[in-house]
Amino acid sequence: MEPFRTFTSRAVVLPRRDVDTDQIIPARFLKGTTREGLGKWLFSGWRYDATGAPVAEFPLNDPRAEGACILVAGANFGCGSSREHAPWALVDHGFRAVISASIADIFRNNAVKNGLVPAVVDEQAHRALLANPFTEVTVDLQAQEVRAPGMRARFSIDPFARRCLLDGIDELGFLLARSAAITAHERARRREEEP
């Protein structure tokens, strides 16, 4: 994972409420165990028609969405099953952050483990972001703040998850970085327990 500190990008707005993990990445695309290639199928039920052609009205198909790395989503984003493939698909597509007024707990936990910042902002800031598709938005993880023209909103994130995102590591990477200290602690405990 890349370290995340401050990130600025155009924001794609998906104003739908209650977007569940099956709508983010439909189950029929979950045949593999790797993350690569899932971004192609992100929101595929809405993004493509029955023939596989892009639906022009869907926000990700708008030419202004090209290269956008921030998704502003409707409330209760990521509800439904606990599939980790949902944040995998978002990250593989190129998103670095999801901003909403509410994000489902399991999705939020899976997101931070995969390098995706879930930023929950207040209702007023959320409405302002939803009303301005493709505006430039900054997600500042160090300050725990979202900024856009005329708008500034705080968001909170678990301190351990924040540390991992700032360092660009997952939980395993965090432990491996401390393997020498863990080994030293285990040796000291064994010495204490010896008769």
Task: Give a written overview of the molecule.
The chain is of the alpha/beta class and 195 residues long. The chain has a single domain, classed as Aconitase, domain 4 (Alpha-Beta Barrel), CATH 3.20.19.10. It contains eight helices and seven strands, in the order E-H-H-E-H-E-H-E-H-E-E-E-H-H-H. A seven-stranded mixed beta sheet has the order 4-3-2-1-5-6-7. Strand 3, helix 4 and strand 4 form a beta-alpha-beta unit. It is globular, with a radius of gyration of 19 Å. The model has no long low-confidence stretch (mean pLDDT 92).
Number of domains: 1
Following the backbone from N to C, one meets helices and strands in this order, namely EHHEHEHEHEEEHHH
Round the mean pLDDT to the nearest integer and report it.
92
% residues in beta strands: 15-25%
Distance between the termini: 45 Å
| CATH-defined superfamily | Aconitase, domain 4
**How many strand segments?**
7
Looking at the overall shape, the CATH architecture is Alpha-Beta Barrel
Strand order of the largest sheet: 4-3-2-1-5-6-7
CATH first level: Alpha Beta
